[in-house]
C-alpha cells in the first residue's frame, strides 16, 4: 500500500472544511490533526505545514467562523431594504441561523484563547462587529464613543446567541425562533427610538 501524498492542492482550506464537519458531529473534542489528515487523504504530517499544533488549528477555525458569519450578515444586508428596521431584522435572522446551524463553531469562536489578546481571531471578530455597527446605524447619544457602539453590538450578539442556544438545546423549537427574534428586535428598536427622541429634544 503506497503512502498518502504529503501535498494536496489547497490543503489548508480542505483541512478547515473537514474540521468544520467534524465540529458539527463530534464537537471540539473530536478534532485531531491526524484524523483530519486521514479525512483529507494526506500523510499524517502534512497538516503541520499549515497548523503547528492543535491550538493553531482551533484559532484558524475561529477566524473561519467569524469570516463566514460576517459573509452571512453581508448577504442578509444585500437582500434587505434601506430602512433600519429591515436591516436590523435581516441581520438578526442571519446571525441566529448561523449560530443554530454552526453551534459548535460559534462556541469555539467566542472561546478562542487568542481573541482577548489581538491577532487574527480578534481582527476577524472586530470586522464582524464593524459590519454589525454599520447595519444598525449610529447609536443615539454615543457621540461616536467606540465603547458605547461595542456595548450595543455585544448586547445584540448576546441576545441572538441566547435565542440560538435555546434552539440548539431544544428548549425552543426552531419554528418558534422567528417569533422570539421579532420580539427581541422590537424591544431593541423601541429602546433605540426612545433614546433618539430624548437625544433630539
UniProtKB/TrEMBL annotation:
The keyword DNA-binding applies. InterPro entries: Homeodomain-like_sf (IPR009057), HTH-type_TetR-like_transc_reg (IPR050109), HTH_TetR (IPR001647), MT1864/Rv1816-like_C (IPR025996), Tet_transcr_reg_TetR-rel_C_sf (IPR036271). This is TetR family transcriptional regulator. Residues 9-69 form the HTH tetR-type domain. Pfam families: TetR_C_33, TetR_N. It comes from the Bacteria. One of its GO terms (molecular function) is transcription cis-regulatory region binding. Residues 32-51 bind DNA.
Amino acid at each position: 500500500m503506497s503512502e498518502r501524498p504529503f501535498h494536496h492542492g489547497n490543503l489548508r482550506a480542505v483541512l478547515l472544511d473537514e474540521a468544520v464537519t467534524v465540529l458539527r458531529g463530534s464537537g471540539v473534542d473530536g478534532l485531531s490533526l491526524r484524523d483530519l489528515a486521514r479525512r483529507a487523504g494526506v500523510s499524517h504530517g502534512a497538516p503541520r505545514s499549515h497548523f503547528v499544533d492543535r491550538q493553531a488549528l482551533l484559532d484558524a477555525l475561529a477566524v473561519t467562523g467569524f469570516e463566514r458569519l460576517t459573509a452571512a450578515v453581508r448577504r442578509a444586508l444585500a437582500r434587505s431594504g434601506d430602512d433600519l428596521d429591515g436591516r436590523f431584522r435581516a441581520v438578526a435572522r442571519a446571525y441566529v441561523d448561523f449560530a443554530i446551524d454552526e453551534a459548535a463553531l460559534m462556541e469555539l469562536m467566542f472561546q478562542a484563547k487568542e481573541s482577548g489578546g489581538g491577532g487574527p481571531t480578534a481582527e476577524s471578530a472586530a470586522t464582524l462587529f464593524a459590519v454589525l455597527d454599520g447595519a444598525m446605524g449610529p447609536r443615539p447619544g454615543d457621540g461616536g464613543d467606540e465603547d458605547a457602539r461595542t456595548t450595543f453590538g455585544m448586547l445584540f450578539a448576546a441576545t441572538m446567541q441566547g435565542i440560538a442556544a435555546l434552539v440548539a438545546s431544544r428548549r425552543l423549537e426552531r419554528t418558534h425562533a422567528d417569533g422570539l427574534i421579532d420580539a427581541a428586535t422590537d424591544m431593541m428598536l423601541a429602546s433605540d427610538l426612545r433614546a433618539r427622541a430624548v437625544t433630539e429634544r
